[in-house]
Design goal:
The protein is built from 9 helices and no strands. The protein is mainly alpha-helical. It folds into 2 domains: 87 residues, Rna Polymerase Sigma Factor, Chain: A (Orthogonal Bundle); 83 residues, Orthogonal Bundle (Arc Repressor Mutant, subunit A).
Length: 195
């Protein structure tokens, strides 16, 4: 969510001064978006809500260190939510430590024609079926744009392990999503044949 500099400064000033109105305005403004971020990283709603609440506490505690000239307020809050979510689920993550030379590929892991026919909820539901470690690497890389170096530092794994989990996520998602689209085309084809 992009705020004007003046809006962001007003919210930040209110939060720094422990003004409940300013804190409530910031919370309401980013509530839905940041809760979705937590849901994308954590396997159940209770953990996601815990990460969300802990993340907002961190936002309020450290907002005085935010420098408006160096970044966007929403992006800064999002990073706090991502790191808080990862901290909360780190104990549950089990990584396959693989030392491979999997290269990053620029080709699409799922054809754009398939993605066009799916709803975001279909994608999210299938991402959630991945093992938690693989899902976390996929989210960090694909949804949030982290590099393998950043992922390896954040999750305490090698870059090769990060690449393996991303490749594994793409392979599994391709297997899951391609049949969905094929099935969604069948009723349409039948109705055309009956005309």
């Amino acid at each position: 969510m992009n705020l004007s500099k003046k809006q962001a400064e007003g919210l930040i000033k209110g939060c720094i001064n422990n003004d409940r109105t300013g804190q409530e305005a910031l919370y309401k403004l980013f509530h839905a978006e940041m809760l979705r971020v937590c849901y994308s990283y954590l396997p159940n709603k209770e953990l996601a809500k815990e990460a969300f609440n802990t993340g907002f506490l961190k936002v309020f505690q450290s907002i005085k260190s935010f420098e408006i000239e160096k970044g966007e307020l929403g992006g800064w809050i999002r990073k706090i939510m991502i790191y808080t979510s990862i901290d909360l689920c780190r104990k549950e993550l089990k990584f396959n430590t693989v030392n491979t030379s999997i290269q990053d590929q620029d080709d699409y892991f799922i054809a754009p024609s398939i993605l066009e026919k799916l709803y975001f909820e279909d994608l999210l539901q299938n991402i959630r079926t991945l093992p938690l470690a693989t899902q976390t690497v996929f989210n960090l890389s694909v949804l949030d744009g982290f590099t393998h170096k950043e992922i390896s530092e954040q999750l305490n794994i090698s870059e090769g392990t990060s690449r393996w989990h991303l490749a594994e996520a793409k392979r599994k998602l391709r297997e899951l999503l391609e049949p969905l689209v094929a099935n969604s085309n069948q009723p349409k084809e039948r109705s055309e044949k009956t005309k």
